[in-house]
What we know:
The complex is a heterodimer.
Chain A: H1 3-15, H2 17-50, H3 62-75, H4 77-109, H5 111-125, H6 133-140, H7 144-168, H8 172-180, H9 185-221, H10 228-237, H11 241-266
Helix pairs in contact in A: 1-2, 3-11, 4-5, 4-7, 4-9, 4-10, 6-7, 7-9, 8-9, 9-10, 9-11, 10-11
Chain B: E1 2-10, E2 16-25, E3 30-35, H1 41-49, E4 56-61, E5 64-65, E6 73-76, H2 88-92, H3 101-114, H4 130-142, E7 148-152, H5 160-177, E8 180-184, H6 188-194, E9 197-202, E10 207-213, H7 225-259
Parallel strand pairs in B: 3-8, 3-9, 6-7, 7-8
Antiparallel strand pairs in B: 1-2, 1-4, 4-5, 9-10
Helix pairs in contact in B: 3-4, 4-5, 6-7
Amino acid sequence: MSTLEIAAATQAKTTGSPGASARRPSSRRLGLAGWLLPIALAALWELLVRAGIANGRLMPPPSVVGRTLWGLAASGELLTHVTATLWRVAAGFGLGAGVGTVLGALTGALPVARGLLDPTLQALRAIPSIAWVPLFILWFGIFEASKVALIAVGVFFPVYLGVAAAIQGIDRRIVEVGRVFRLGRLAMVRRVLLPAILPAWFTSLRSGLGLGFMFVVAAEIMGASEGLGYLLVDGQQLGRPDTIIAAIISFAVLGKLADGLLLAITRPFLAWQDLGRDTL
Amino acid sequence: MLSFETLSKTYADGTRALSAITASVAAGEILALVGGSGCGKTTLLRLIAGLDRPSAGRILLDGEAILEPRADVGVIFQEPRLFPWLSVADNVAFGLSHLSAFEREGLVTNALVRVGLAGYEKRWPRELSGGQQQRIAIARALITRPKLLLMDEPFSALDATTRASLHGHLLALWEESRPTVVMVTHDVEEAVTLADRIIVMQPKPGRIFDELDNPLARPRDRLSPAFEASKREVLRTLDRSLRDEEPQQHKTAETAGMWW
């Protein structure tokens, strides 16, 4: 989803603002250019199916997908699925991001905690998260709890790593300025450490959110009675590729909207950063 | 008054950065520390700032030992070290959080005028040039009216013109409240321009080689023969300090060679 954008933004940040701001208008034009290919392909496919050259059964044309999507929306079914999915992502993201932030802060700030916790967490990270599913189902049942737990695990690691790295990467020289001004422990955290890690924390939250959407699909495919992931499976079992594509499109839109929302919430806190960041 | 009593600092790896420094600085005096690299100038400054603890001896400011950073001691580092997430005004006002917003605003406006950056309150540090950022750092350190101001090669990263204009700004600010100033520099001309007294230091271990009084009256004319004479004297002393050091270096090289 946004990994590339984040990488590009980081690059823009490190290369400095002049280049980034000079590149902005052209990158916007290129952004519009990006629509050309998918629209052209969709139109071509629509034409081929209508002309009877291609059979649209396995790959339905845009008009059919659109009709399906509209039907789902009109019946209120789509809203039920979207709500279920969003609720799971929100719960899992909140849990994973919360625990990830706290543990990341601990291991980043306290060498003792790093020595105790980090090796174990790194080892756990090596386990493909989907491998937890059977265990989580045994532990938490097949309903919501196991799904939320899986999503939380997925969100946890990028946030944990991001926060720990950000804290360890804080410029010691700027902390020294805090010492010169005799900031107490709390004031040091509030006035120096927190603002210093904010950008990296927000970036880790964004990648965490992206993974949250990835894992909600996995969780819902493996057994759910509602949710967009369920819609995917349902479409497969009923032989309705249009339903599957409608669900995929909904996922894409939701993911993009959630990411945009997170970005909009965090942007005011990062106004001080390089202008290149604005295009993120 | 600021005084050092047989001050020593040995780092954990055994490096003797400072050895038995004894000196004193009168209130309102500007003292420059010059010397070759590794002579402990910056270490001494960090000890006075309370950022590091001495291994032996003590530092007294008006009779009180300095063990940690103090409210009445301001520090200007080699780099501006501004907080990138704070506006220029908030950076300057960083040490004034105990005052009301209204009082802060007045002081900040005033301080920015003094460093020639009036109207820059709402800018971000990244929008400023290196010289402007360093001026903000000077304003940030002086706005709390410190009794003692410490500067670690504050102008070394700047070009000659900017440096000269900052010297002017600094002296103007110093005139206002006459804090005691201890500055580290490797630029002899800078030392002669600003300081009342110049301490030449010598490395391995860091110690005082010589002290020179700078009798020039302010304002100082860099082109006057008296200025030239002072500068030459400092340079000569500095040269001597480096020459004296050579045999010793040679010796250590020799012993190191024998060890091999």
